[in-house]
Description:
Layout: H1 4-34, E1 46-50, H2 55-66, E2 70-75, H3 78-91, E3 97-101, H4 108-119, E4 124-129, H5 146-174, E5 177-182, H6 185-188, H7 197-217, E6 222-227, H8 235-240, H9 253-261, E7 269-270, H10 274-285, H11 288-308
Parallel strand pairs: 1-2, 1-4, 2-3, 4-5, 5-6, 6-7
Bound molecules: NADP nicotinamide-adenine-dinucleotide phosphate and 2-acetamido-2-deoxy-beta-D-glucopyranose (2 copies).
Amino acid sequence: MLPPRMVLLPSTVGFIFLLNLFISLLKWIFTTFLRTPKNLTHYGSWALITGATDGIGKALAKKCAQQGLNLILVSRSHNKLKAVETELRAEYPDTKITTVEFDFTGNISNGVRSIEKAIDGVEVGILINNVGITYPSAMFFHEVEEKVWMDIVRVNLEGTTRVTKAVLSGMIKRKRGAIVNIGSGAAIVVPSHPLFTIYAATKAYVDQLSRSMHVEYKKFGIDVQCQVPLYVATKMVSKVASIEKRSMFIPSPDDYAEASISWIGYEARCTPYWPHSLQWSFASLLPHSILDAWRLSIGIRRRSHSTFT
Ligand SMILES: NC(=O)c1ccc[n+]([C@@H]2O[C@H](COP(=O)([O-])OP(=O)(O)OC[C@H]3O[C@@H](n4cnc5c(N)ncnc54)[C@H](OP(=O)(O)O)[C@@H]3O)[C@@H](O)[C@H]2O)c1
Ligand SMILES: *[C@@H]1O[C@H](CO)[C@@H](O)[C@H](O)[C@H]1NC(C)=O
Ligand SMILES: *[C@@H]1O[C@H](CO)[C@@H](O)[C@H](O)[C@H]1NC(C)=O
């Protein structure tokens, strides 16, 4: 017979461990399936979305219109902006829509000025910093041309920061607002993202920017959040990962946006689409060395594909 103390200690530790797991599970079920989404119009009547002419940004613009918000769509190409505007007007005739042509790889100061002009006197309640670019294909760090990585830094990091600064001052005055920055599993879910290093590093910046601002601006009535998608079936993904098909783990932009919209205003960091968060929990059980080796082999395979085709 073991002395009771030696049985009690491990069973208490085991109990606390299981209790913790159980509480996390309940919390996950609640936040994912049961919690009431915030009424986004309470933040203000307009939403500004960058990279709004395709993929996740366009899908989120639709969702915002559905919630009764007016839209400021920011993107680089005049024609695509007009096409998306026409499409949304047909579907949501009561929504007011403004477009801003802004190439984030160009003159950012001019682009930010156009945004400032567009939001002058407008109650922007929601800002979605969605625009983001990555490598044309998997590459080692030393292979990335200066223009390519400088553009990634400009769009993902400088663009996000400067648009946030431009929109934030009005939110501070009104004491309300929600800012959503689109991060990536590349920087958060996996311990490394080899052969897409600079992209992943800019997304780590976006994550930390959001989480620190979340704490800084809570008292101002402004909810800042980093959303962490894993793969979503967009132009970006079909280009770099040759993934064309949707599946349970690779949603359409519309399915991603449907989940995304109901998380706005809550956690500092979240993975809205629930199969993605399952994947994340699974990844967190694996040792880093295995995830590193897996990501590296994927990167190298993609690199050789792009070299030979
Ligand atoms: N798809 C994924 O699996 C995934 C996963 C994790 C994170 N993300 C992040 O999600 C965000 C959206 O990605 P997505 O997959 O929806 O991308 P996407 O389909 O390539 O769409 C990107 C949008 O941004 C615009 N854009 C691109 N470069 C621009 C520039 N220089 N100036 C202004 N606008 C520009 C595009 O305009 P055009 O239509 O004119 O090109 C398009 O509207 C990005 O921040 C990305 O890093 C995506
Ligand atoms: C959100 O609030 C507005 C104004 O208070 C209201 O008109 C609208 O119906 C609400 N939307 C939802 C989805 O509850
Ligand atoms: C952007 O354009 C403005 C005026 O149009 C100019 O003064 C400024 O130097 C430009 N910035 C860059 C980085 O080219």
